[in-house]
């Protein structure tokens, strides 16, 4: 039963249902109070709902149990510097992050935008591809500049977009100095 509760907690987070993720992770902690993966998941869910102080406390608890835990150390540091602002729920499918030759591509961006904006990006956050003269710009859904695709990928995607291909694009990882996006070709054409 324990692993099914963990599975439900993970599923809720992947669906962007942070309230349910909090509830399910708390149920796991009722029987395993020092379970580090669950503590990290609960802290993430709390941060996503704007409960940054509680999230930081949980990450600090993880660090007290495992001082080298990379997730807790990174997230605690990030939340201390820039509190998480609750966002609209974004449904993330597990298959969105699986590489498939010819259908998906992971890209590091160049010509990055404002560091504060980059630091606020979340994994799984949808972004847009905007065709410019010589490259493709990646923006937030409210048209804030994140960065650009490298020239050879821009050229290839410009041709694909011109022929009617559609792409789903999300942030894979982000920091103030580096952003990686995940691009998936949709099955249907415009």
Properties at a glance:
Serine Threonine Protein Phosphatase 5, Tetratricopeptide repeat, 190 residues, 3-stranded antiparallel β-sheet, alpha+beta, elongated, Alpha-Beta Plaits
Topology:
Elements: H1 2-14, H2 18-31, H3 36-48, H4 52-65, H5 70-81, E1 104-108, H6 115-120, E2 128-131, E3 136-139, E4 145-148, H7 151-162, E5 167-175, E6 178-185
Antiparallel strand pairs: 1-6, 2-3, 3-4, 5-6
Helix pairs in contact: 1-2, 2-3, 3-4, 4-5
Please explain how this structure is put together:
Helix content is about 45%, strand content about 20%. It is α+β, with helices and mostly antiparallel strands. It has 2 domains: about 80 residues, Serine Threonine Protein Phosphatase 5, Tetratricopeptide repeat (Alpha Horseshoe); about 90 residues, Alpha-Beta Plaits. It has a 3-stranded antiparallel sheet. Strands 2-3-4 form a 3-stranded antiparallel sheet. The protein starts with a helix and ends in a 5-residue tail after the last strand.
Query: How big is the Rg?
Result: 18 Å
- Assigned CATH class of the largest domain: Alpha Beta
Q: Can you tell me the residue ranges where pLDDT is under 50 for at least 5 consecutive residues? A: 88-98
CATH topology of the largest domain: Alpha-Beta Plaits
Query: What composes the largest sheet?
Result: 3 strands, antiparallel
The N- to C-terminal Cα distance equals 45 Å
Q: How is this structure best summarized?
A:
With 190 residues, the chain is of the alpha+beta class. Helices cover 44% and strands 18% of the residues.
């Amino acid at each position: 039963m324990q692993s099914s509760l963990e599975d439900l907690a993970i599923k809720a987070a992947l669906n962007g249902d942070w309230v349910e993720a909090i509830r399910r992770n708390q149920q796991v902690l009722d029987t395993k109070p020092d379970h580090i993966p669950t503590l990290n998941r609960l802290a993430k869910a709390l941060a996503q709902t704007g409960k940054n102080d509680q999230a930081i406390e949980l990450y600090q608890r993880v660090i007290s149990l495992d001082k080298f835990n990379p997730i807790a150390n990174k997230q605690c540091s990030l939340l201390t510097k820039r509190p998480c602002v609750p966002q609209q729920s974004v449904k993330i499918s597990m298959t969105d992050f699986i590489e498939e030759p010819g259908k998906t591509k992971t890209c590091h961006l160049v010509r990055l935008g404002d560091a504060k904006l980059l630091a606020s990006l979340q994994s799984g956050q949808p972004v847009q591809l905007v065709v410019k003269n010589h490259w493709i710009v990646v923006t937030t859904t409210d048209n804030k500049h994140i960065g650009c695709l490298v020239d050879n990928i821009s050229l290839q995607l410009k041709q694909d977009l011109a022929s009617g291909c559609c792409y789903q694009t999300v942030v894979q990882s982000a920091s103030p100095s580096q952003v990686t996006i995940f691009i998936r070709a949709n099955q249907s054409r415009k």
